[in-house]
Structures are given as C-alpha cells and as structure tokens.
Amino acid sequence: MQEYVGLGEELIFISMGLASIVAVAVFLERFLYFKKSMGKLNDTYLEEVRNSLQEEPEVNWKTNVSDESIYSRFVNFALRQLSLGKKGLDESLEGQILSEKLLLERRLPILNTLGNNAPFIGLLGTVLGVIKAFHGLGTLGSSGAEVVMRSISTALLATAAGLAVAIPVVMANNYFSRKAKVILQNLEILKKEFLSFQINKSKV
C-alpha cells in the first residue's frame, strides 16, 4: 500500500511540473496572438473608422494597420458586405464577431482548468505525503521522528507547488479574458456604427 502512496506522491510532483510547462506554453501562445491581433495603432484606427462612418458619405480611410489586426479584419469584412449590398448585415457582422470570439478564447479553458484544479492536485499530494509520514511514524516509532518530519515537509511542498502553479495561471487567464472582453465590446461598437452607416446611406 505504501508503495502506491509513494508512487502517487511522485506522480503529483510530475503532474505539477507538466502543468507548469503547459501553462507557460499556453500563456506565450496567447500573448503572441493577442499582440499580433491588437497591433500598435488600433486605438487610432478605431477612431478613424468611427469618425469616417459618422461624418463621411463614403467610407474611404486608409491606415497602415496590419491585416492581421482583428479590428482591421472585421472592418474589411464589413466593407465587403456593404459593397456587395447584401441584406442581413446585422447577422453577418454578428457571425463575424462570434468567429473572432472563438479565436480569442481558444486555449483559455486550459488555463481556467489548470487554475481551478492545481491547488487540489497539490492538496492530494500533501494528503498522500502525510499518510506516508504517519505510516513511517507508526513503523519507526520515536526513533524515526526525523524521517517523519522530512516526509511532512516534502508533503507540504506539494500544496505549495499547486498554489505556485495556480496563482499565476489564474492571473493570466483573467488578463486574457479581460482583453478578449474589451476587443469584443469594440467590435460590437463597430457593428453598430456600420449598421447606422448602412441606414443613413440608404436614406440618401
């Protein structure tokens, strides 16, 4: 029985190490994606787009924002829909927003899962370590107190490892979730501006 307890304790530490590697990999991938999608001129670009939609009879702005920018991609999609004169612009833009939402939230469930479960995995490691320590105390008696204390110390490291993984992962997940929320809200604003532009253009 104690062999399985010791093996389980080792597996807990291995799983914590793997979880930290996965978390770092997801964080770097999401960081690079958001950086590429946001670009450097998005605030200026959004202001130019909104001003043009509100003040100009035709949409004719130009910027050097990368086509990989999520806002530029959305605007180009909306412009294509307007140029084609298709009906159901509202549904088309809503579908594009949902498509962008899926891309923004990709792999975030991994961070959410790790952040929620890493402390419990660490706690399981601590429980296994305490079981091992008390078994040693019962076997060795008072002469094995030093060994038991070392076992308990190692067991507490599992909880510390779980928290060390969970805290930055939760912070990263909240950061990316907030970023995604702001981007989607800006896309909703652009959608309303395009719909208003379409209505005003049809009245001319």
UniProtKB/TrEMBL annotation:
The chain crosses the membrane at residues 12-33, 114-135, 155-176. GO terms for biological process: protein import. It is a multi-pass membrane protein. Keywords: Cell membrane, Membrane, Protein transport, Transmembrane, Transmembrane helix, Transport. Residues 69-188 form the MotA/TolQ/ExbB proton channel domain. It comes from the Bacteria. GO terms for cellular component: plasma membrane. It is found in: Cell membrane; Membrane. The keyword Transmembrane applies. Pfam families: MotA_ExbB. Belongs to the exbB/tolQ family. This is MotA/TolQ/ExbB proton channel family protein.
